[in-house]
Amino acid sequence: MKLLVTGGAGYIGAVVAQRLLADGHTVEILDNLTTGHANMDLPGAVWHRGEIADAGQVLDSSFDGVVHLAAKSLVGESVQHPERYWHGNIVASLQLIDAIRAAGVERLVFSSTAAVYGEPGVEKITEDIPTRPTNPYGASKLAIDHMLTAEAAAHGLAAVSLRYFNVAGASGALRERHDPETHLIPNLLKVARGEAAEAKIFGTDYPTRDGTAIRDYIHVVDLADAHVRALEAAEAGRHAIYNLGTGTGTSVREVIEAVREVTGEDVPAAEQPRRPGDPAVLVASGDLAAAELGWKPQRDIREMVADAWAALQ
Known about the structure:
313 residues; Rossmann fold; UDP-galactose 4-epimerase, domain 1; 2 domains; 7-stranded parallel sheet; 3-stranded mixed sheet; 14 strands
């Protein structure tokens, strides 16, 4: 297939593009490089520097599909500046959908998020529970999901939304390089490398097995595999939605212990109060993705840490 990957210079986008190239697809990347990196090693990809709204200048009838990963994705920023998320995510994605329709492109795989569920308070999150995002970032992604449902029904688009949980790990040299870095594992690895004095544990009094928050971590390589399967399974006139997680929760203390084991470093951690709005447990049910895509994650938390650590070395 000939595919456009928006956000292909970012962490997840680059690994998805790498997998598509390895599978023999023709890949073109559209990225404005505000958070992505121009030096991503993706031989064979065609690069376009621009905004999501510029997709109409790239897409034509020769394209078979679009993988839409470009987005603004900082929860805190979305609370302080929601207008950036209405424009950068919702309006820009509507312009992308318009360009897809105008070019006659048949399929779209969209990078959604578990943030659309808010704080559901269930053991495992399934796709049919109510969506109640607690911040503008999650609300903006949910709005795009609604757009795709309507677009598929009205115009026959084959659309798939993939709701990620906590993505981690690396694929070769392709790793997380966020600025600012807000994710737990890369921040712990900074401590292991001596680039930060200590890690922070936000909340030690949650009703969990060790008092710290539990999250569902998924390896970025497994995530890329889900995108390939979603492209292949997309059906005209249907908007399918899948949660992507392992179905197994890992606590903050367990992640810290995995980092200590992999790196051989002490990784001191300071206990801090809970952050407002942080749920105790967020774990996905991956049953639907397994049943309809044949997708099951293959890598555990230790492999995620080991691959991320190796990429840093």
